[in-house]
């Protein structure tokens, strides 16, 4: 059975600013890694059909083993749909030997004007069963908090 994880947050920035941070390489490297990780983008092609490859490194891998290696998660992300400034749909595949992390997870970032800000809702569908749901939703919430801090200070 496929699983859906989600999180949302209102960010004090207009949808166009938030959308821009979803499609800017340096921005993504800054805010996308959840707390306890850092990220590096190895490949970048921000267009429908394009995508990116990100290496996420755990700052302390002792209690959070990675999917690709003891200290890393490597994910290949394809941009399935880009609708400025409303939606970004990504298809993510983790590099992992463990079959419980196999498959393509779809991440939909939906942006809706909310007063002076933007409500960002992230919905992850077909989440691989090896990914703990509570940890995944906390990770998405952490990335959203990082996104808010990023666009609210630079926007």
Give an overview in words.
Belongs to the AHA1 family. The chain is globular, with a radius of gyration of 15 Å. Strands 1-7-6-5-4-3-2 form a seven-stranded antiparallel β-sheet. It is an alpha+beta fold and 155 residues long. Helix content is 24%, strand content 42%.
Average pLDDT over all residues:
93
Number of helices, where a helix is a run of at least 4 consecutive DSSP H or I residues: 3
Top CATH class? Alpha Beta
Poorly predicted segments: none
Using DSSP, what is the number of strands? 7
Q: What order do the strands of the largest sheet run in, or round the barrel if closed?
A: 1-7-6-5-4-3-2
Describe the global form: globular
Q: What is the end-to-end distance?
A: 40 Å
What order do the helices and strands follow?
EHHEEEEEEH
Structural class: alpha+beta
Q: Determine Rg (CA atoms, Å).
A: 15 Å
Provide the helix percentage: 10-25%
Report the CATH topology name: Alpha-D-Glucose-1,6-Bisphosphate, Chain A, domain 4
Domains (count): 1
The CATH architecture name reads 2-Layer Sandwich
Provide the β-strand percentage band: 35-45%
User: So, the CATH homologous superfamily?
Assistant: START domain
